[in-house]
Amino acid sequence: MRVVALETHDIRFPTSLELDGSDAMNPDPDYSAAYVVLRTDDGAKGHGFAFTIGRGNDVQTTAIKALEPYVVGRDCSDLGAVYRDIVGDSQLRWLGPEKGVMHMAISAVMNALWDLRAKLAGKPLWLLLAELSPEEIVDLLDFRYITDALTRQDALDILRAAEPGKRARIERLRADGFPAYTTSPGWLGYDDDKLRRLCKEALDEGFTQIKLKVGADLDDDKRRMRIAREVCGTGFPIAVDANQRWDVATAITWIGALAEFEPWWVEEPTSPDDMLGHAAIAREIAPIPVATGEHVQNRIVFKQLLQAGAISYLQLDAARVGGVNENIAILLLAAKFGVPVCPHAGGVGLCELVQHLAMFDFIAVSGSMDGRVIEYIDHLHEHFVDPVVIENGSYVAPLAPGFSSALRAESLAEFAYPWGPVWNTASESPPIS
Ligand SMILES: [Mg+2]
C-alpha cells in the first residue's frame, strides 16, 4: 500500500440558498468538503475529507496538503504506525496538539487510507474492522493520555467480551440495518408549515426519532416544539440541538422552559470544550439527558466528559478527531463507561462515513443497538459514488468495498470552488498545475 500522490479538492455546496443546515450558530451554511484523494503505484485510490462550512475550506485544504510528505512515497500498510507518526510530528503538533484544523486534516488523510485499505481488501470498512482481532485493533490505537480511564488491557477485555455473537450480529445488521433518526425537519431557517410537513414525512418514512434545532429564540423554540409534538404525538422521541449557543446558566433555564415538551436529549448546550459546564447542566436538567461530541476535538476531552458524568449520549464525528484510529479509541471509552454512541452526521458525507463506525461498534465493541441511533440528513447524498441507503428509518449496511467516501467526478467538477460552474465567481481559468 505505497502512496504515490496526494491531491486536494475544495468542494462547496451552496446550501445557504435554501437554509439547509441552518442552526442557532450557523445561519448561512455552505456545506463543504476539503477532499483528499490518495493514489497508489498500482492505480488504487483512497478518498477522505474534512467537513467544513464554506470559507473554512480555504484553510482546511491547505492543512491537508501539508501532510503530503508524511504519506507520499511511504508504505502505509501499518495504519497504527502511520497514525501515531502523523499525530506525533513535532512541528505540526505545535498547532494542536491533536485539535483543530490540523487534526481534521489528519482525519481526512487517515480516513482516505482506511478507504484505500478496505477497497484493496474488497470489503466495506465496517466489515473489515469487525473482522480484525482484538490484538490487531488495539495496535491501531494511541493510549497516551487516556490510560487513567482505558488501558490497553481494558480495551482487549472489551473487544474479547464482544467476540461471541459477532457472526449473528453481522447477520442481524445485514437483515435489519441500523436505526436512524432524522434532523431534516428541524433546521432553524424552515417555516412552521415546512416543519409540520417534514415531521409528518419523517413519521411516514418510518423514523423513530427526530431532532429540532433550538437556541435562537425561546418563544420560537416553544412554538416549534409544540408543532412537532402535535404531529409526532406524546412519547415520540424529539431531541433538541442548541449548537453551543448557551452559557451554562442560560442552558439550564432555557431547557427548563422546554421541559414540558419532553426533549429526548439536549445536544451541545454549551461550548464543546467545557467539560465541567456540561456536567453542571446534566446535573441540573436531569432526567433530561445531555448529548455532545460533534465538536469534541479528541479522545482526551471525550474521556473527561465521561469521567465527569456529563453526557448520556456520545456523538462522535468521523472527520473531526484523528480519523478511524482515534474514533475506535473513543468507541472503547464509551463502552468502558456504558454510554451509547449516537454518531453525528449533519454535514456533507458524514452519514456515509459514520454508518461504518456505528456498525463496527455494534458488532465488535458495544455489541448492542440499545439506545443507539445514527443521525440522518437527506442532503447531498447524490454526490457520492456509494450513497447511504435508508429503508424503514434504518441505515442499510453498505456492501461496496471502502468507506463510502468517494465523491462523483461530475460533482467534483461542478462544485469545485471557485472555478466550478455553480460558483462562477471567477472570470479567469484555473491555473494549470
Ligand atoms: Mg448537532
TrEMBL record:
<dbReference type="Pfam" id="PF13378">
    <property type="entry name" value="MR_MLE_C"/>
</dbReference>
<dbReference type="GO" id="GO:0009063">
    <property type="term" value="P:amino acid catabolic process"/>
</dbReference>
<dbReference type="InterPro" id="IPR046945">
    <property type="entry name" value="RHMD-like"/>
</dbReference>
<keyword id="KW-0456">Lyase</keyword>
<dbReference type="InterPro" id="IPR029065">
    <property type="entry name" value="Enolase_C-like"/>
</dbReference>
<dbReference type="InterPro" id="IPR036849">
    <property type="entry name" value="Enolase-like_C_sf"/>
</dbReference>
<dbReference type="InterPro" id="IPR013342">
    <property type="entry name" value="Mandelate_racemase_C"/>
</dbReference>
<keyword id="KW-0460">Magnesium</keyword>
<protein>
    <recommendedName>
        <fullName>L-fuconate dehydratase</fullName>
        <ecNumber>4.2.1.68</ecNumber>
    </recommendedName>
</protein>
<dbReference type="GO" id="GO:0000287">
    <property type="term" value="F:magnesium ion binding"/>
</dbReference>
<dbReference type="InterPro" id="IPR018110">
    <property type="entry name" value="Mandel_Rmase/mucon_lact_enz_CS"/>
</dbReference>
<dbReference type="Pfam" id="PF02746">
    <property type="entry name" value="MR_MLE_N"/>
</dbReference>
<dbReference type="GO" id="GO:0050023">
    <property type="term" value="F:L-fuconate dehydratase activity"/>
</dbReference>
<dbReference type="InterPro" id="IPR013341">
    <property type="entry name" value="Mandelate_racemase_N_dom"/>
</dbReference>
<dbReference type="GO" id="GO:0016052">
    <property type="term" value="P:carbohydrate catabolic process"/>
</dbReference>
<keyword id="KW-0479">Metal-binding</keyword>
<feature type="domain" description="Mandelate racemase/muconate lactonizing enzyme C-terminal">
    <location>
        <begin position="192"/>
        <end position="288"/>
    </location>
</feature>
<dbReference type="InterPro" id="IPR029017">
    <property type="entry name" value="Enolase-like_N"/>
</dbReference>
<dbReference type="InterPro" id="IPR034610">
    <property type="entry name" value="L-fuconate_dehydratase"/>
</dbReference>
